[in-house]
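seq/struct pair 1
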Amino acid sequence: MRLKKSYILFLITLILLNISIVFSTTKNNYNTQNFFRIHVVANSDSIDDQLLKYNVAKEVETYITTLTKESSSKEESKQIIQKNIHSILNMCNAIIIEQGYTYNVKAYIGKLEYDEKQKDNIYMTSGIYDSLKIVIGNGNGTNWWSLIYPTSLNYEILDPSNSEQVEYKLHIVEWFKELFNM
């Protein structure tokens, strides 16, 4: 009897040690065709170039959010960005010059391949997405990305019916349930 109590205490301890493990989560595998992303690539991975990239990205994101806040579709957002691409490039150049750099900046609108990413509460599957890509200088640095459409203001456009439930289980928990007929 004492051995059984020790065994149960051991199992409970193992379960408590693993309490931080998530038993189930939802991954939203949305259709990549519904998104328009922004991708800003730094000149290099130096601290200064990464800081410059971050400053450019944040200013551009704020500007684009203002431009597209009334947009009701990805295509409308793309058209707005295309119409304002010179203003966006001018803004990038101004930030680069203001911070003491002489890098060229280029912008492209097209399809880009992305790896699986998560930002805030949005899980993005790997795939090809319509994107605005801004390249600073040589573009050899780490990138920064965000969504242009849908914006953080209209995430409800995301279709949760296109979700896949992924369940993670600990073998020991399943065994424990079996042992005690739970």
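seq/struct pair 2
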Amino acid sequence: EGFHLEIAKAKAAELVQRLGFYKLRAEVEIAEDPAFTVAAAWGPAPRLPDGAIAYADPRLPALGQRILLPAGTSLGNLGCAPAGEDEYHAQRIALGVPEGGRDYAFGDTFPHEAMFDQLAGVDFDKGCFVGQEVVSRMEHRGTARKRIVGVEGEGPLPPSGTDITAGGASIGTLSSVSGSSGLALLRLDRAEEAKAAGVPLRAGEVNVGLRIPAWARLKTPAAAAS
């Protein structure tokens, strides 16, 4: 009888309005559903109450399950250790998975930069969509210069928004941070050049190294050209 879309709560009203532009005269209702709250579970499968909807996170198996729980459900009754949002984000950062609004700006980021092509966010076999020509060209020509990848600091990382520099020149921006681990939107070609020249990368005053996720199949523009 319908579909549920799980999205960032702060963007829900905007999405409802946007989808309303396209329903035309179809007899479709598009609205926020207050009956559910969202949870994530990784490790052993939790006990789910009646009315819950659980599905594998479509981005990456290691992220576990996304769960739509009936509003008011106590997490303590699910048979797994409760975790706070900080623990979830630490898990996500360790896996190298970016999140909209934290690691990239909605409406101002190419899908390849946000790793959509690597995390089942783009179907290159489907028909046209807004921006399809640019996305397809970036895919087939390997021209995505910037990517969100993991970084590991030699100490605790500075706040989100700090420039990542190589030899004093900015090559990217730090985004999500959890202790000495983080994610950053970087020019990978510039990072490669710095590595080849023996120039360290820094986030503020902290030396950092790149951490390319094991699931990522990345080609830098230089590699694609060769």
